[in-house]
Specification:
The protein is about 50% helix and about 15% strand. The chain starts with a helix and ends with a helix. By secondary structure, it is of the alpha/beta class. It has a seven-stranded mixed sheet with strand order 3-2-1-4-5-7-6, sandwiched between helices. It has a domain of about 180 residues: Vaccinia Virus protein VP39 (Rossmann fold), CATH 3.40.50. α7 packs parallel to α8. This is Protein IRX15-LIKE. It comes from Prunus yedoensis var. nudiflora. Pfam families: IRX15_IRX15L_GXM (PF21729).
Amino acid sequence: MKTNTTTTTNTNTKLILLHPSSIHKSSTNGGSPHRLWLLFFFTFFTLAFTLTLINTSIPQTLPNSSLTPTSTIPLPPPILDALLHYAISSNTSSTPHMSAPELTTISSTLTRLCAPTCNFLIFGLTHESLLYLALNLNGRTVFLDESEFLVSRFEQSHPHHTPEAYDVSYTTQVPWDVILVDGPRGYSPAAPGRMSAIFTAGVLARSKRGGRATTHVFVHDLNREVERVFSDEFLCRENLVETVDSLGHFVVEKMEDHNSFKFCRNPTSSPSSKEDEDD
């Protein structure tokens, strides 16, 4: 009986084999909610970090990519030539230069008046000649100088500009918008002086046909006696709108009556006219 019982017991005994897969399944089924939440939060933070990284990197790359096409455009030859000229020129040169306020006055007038183009007449080839060409890049700039040698050398030294430069024997019917008198030389008794240049500027401003109603005339070294007296006589003190250092800025209206020989509306504005009246 015992043997049978044992046998019966042995035959009724069920052996349960636990495989690793079954253990994993049971443990997973028991803790599935916690692991799902953990997986959800991990995925969420991963996506948030990725989006943050993309958004912060886009502003840094866009400006570089947008500037790439424009960085390959070369400077116009006249601008490049002017920059090189003033970069290598010495500020301690004995040649007289215009001051920064004087150049700013001329530059602001050209910028304001000459849009999009301007006719700019300049008496005298000076240290600032290339700057004037660059400022009036889209317009017409003409230089007049008493030295044929300087005119020739200027044209040969700056072929990119194709400048218009002539000696004093020059006639024109162009309605000039801006005229600058910075030559001929007038700082010594042997120099030709600027009397004829100031007179010519006054005539061109009043007698022009077409174009703007007024002409801006700049006279450099207005503090010198010759420049001051002739400017008062032919450009008129009533037309003087500002003085910056030694630069005089006149705005002269064109004359409707071309048979008139008067330069100034108010004769008393000219010191020389007062002297004539006293005589």
